[in-house]
Specification:
The protein folds into two domains: 56 residues, DNA polymerase, domain 1 (Orthogonal Bundle); 290 residues, TIM Barrel (Alpha-Beta Barrel), CATH 3.20.20. Helices cover 34% and strands 18% of the residues. It is an alpha/beta fold.
């Protein structure tokens, strides 16, 4: 890439104000305040306001984030006379499991959660050799209206709170610690924001949840930011904002098409932020953080899987240089019953991958998990 081209790529536009369409419906009752919603100072302040000793906040945080305890009877360092009041103040119940389905010999566990107001969300625990990944939801429903997505079909109900996001991971960590997942006791090593919702449209809660994940115990779970992936369909202003947070998470851009004509149909937000703007924001994230960006590409039969689109995708990505800033993750489509969108043929996916690699783009085909348990985001909630 020439110096002039690189300079043009490096230019950043002023952050645009996101339209109100991204906001959740107004007037909804908020979830109960939980210690995971707050930093350490906020937890102490909440207890003090309730007439309780602020120093107990650290003990409660230790039980929640480090010990993964959810039974007040096990919190024996708290005075018996105040225990219930302390737990009620900082550890209210946030969500109830409605259904739990297993696949892959018990190493993939999908949970349908009912939130305090009846909203339904899903999380998935996936155990692989050497790691355990939690896929979490950030919204009940989604307002991005991608036609091939089960979640988008139901629209947006509301944003999830920081604590509701965090609780999905903590619940998975508890199950692993107790040996309830096939493979014996373990720990959550990776988190991906690839469940229900658009994480960037719930930015404040999402980034606060990331902070809870990376803060050392007992303030948080003490995870590595490099093991956290935040996915987006391309909310450009928020992508640029994430680049300035100083938290080196992996950014995953759900692109699904390399040309505006098709992407306008598959990812409607593209009518607001074009392929060029979206990919440039992804490149900017890689350039600022020195973290390789993942391009997510769901393979849909005879829609976006043509060989010429593989060549075009490679050309678009290579226009920002060949310094290894990007990795393409091809995803065999999780089919939604009754949808016109179906999974690409094996030979077409293989050719798509071959053409990307031939042009120097690092590419992998995602290992599909849990097809038999409605693995696609929103499918399980839709059946309820």
């Amino acid at each position: 890439m020439s110096e002039e081209t690189q300079a043009n790529h490096a230019k950043t536009e002023p952050i645009k104000t996101l339209p109100l369409v991204f906001d959740e419906p107004r007037g909804r009752k908020k979830p109960p305040r939980h210690l995971a919603d707050l930093d350490e100072a906020g937890r102490k302040e909440l207890l003090t306001q309730a007439g309780l000793p602020g120093f107990r906040a650290k003990q409660l945080s230790n039980h929640y984030f480090a010990r993964l305890v959810d039974d007040p009877a096990e919190m024996t360092d708290l005075p018996a006379g105040q225990r219930d009041e302390l737990v009620s103040a900082l550890l209210p119940n946030l969500m109830t499991p409605l259904r739990t389905l297993q696949a892959d010999k018990g190493k993939t566990v999908k949970t349908l959660w009912k939130l305090f107001d009846g909203a339904l969300v899903e999380s998935v625990l996936m155990r692989y050799p050497g790691r355990v990944t939690m896929c979490v939801s950030s919204q009940a429903g989604c307002g991005m209206a991608c036609p091939f997505c089960a979640t988008g079909a139901g629209g947006l109900q509301r944003n999830m709170s920081t604590a509701e996001i965090v609780e999905q991971v903590v619940a998975g960590a508890r199950a692993l610690q107790r040996g309830e997942v096939a493979g014996g006791p373990g720990r959550v090593s990776n988190v991906v924001f690839m469940g229900m919702g658009e994480p960037m449209a719930n930015y404040k809660a999402m980034i606060a949840a990331v902070r809870r994940f990376v803060e050392p115990a007992p303030a948080g779970l003490g995870m590595s930011a490099r093991h956290i992936t935040v996915s987006t369909v391309g909310l450009v202003p928020r992508m640029r904002q994430l680049a300035e947070e100083g938290i080196p998470v992996t950014l995953a851009l759900s692109l699904h098409a390399p040309d505006d004509e098709l992407r306008n149909e598959l990812v409607p937000i593209n009518t607001r932020f074009s392929v060029a703007e979206t990919v440039e924001a992804a490149w900017n994230y890689a350039n600022v953080t020195k973290r390789r960006v993942s391009i997510e590409y769901a393979m849909m039969r005879d829609i976006n899987d043509q060989a010429w689109r593989a060549d075009l995708l490679a050309d678009v990505l290579n226009s920002y240089g060949d310094w290894g800033w990007v990795h393409v993750n091809l995803i065999p489509l999780n089919e939604v019953p009754g949808s016109q969108f179906t999974r690409s043929r094996e030979e077409d996916m293989d050719e798509f991958l071959r053409r990307l690699e031939a042009k120097g783009i690092a590419t992998t085909m995602r290992d599909t998990r849990g097809d038999e348990i409605d693995a696609a985001c929103g499918q399980l909630a839709a059946t309820e």
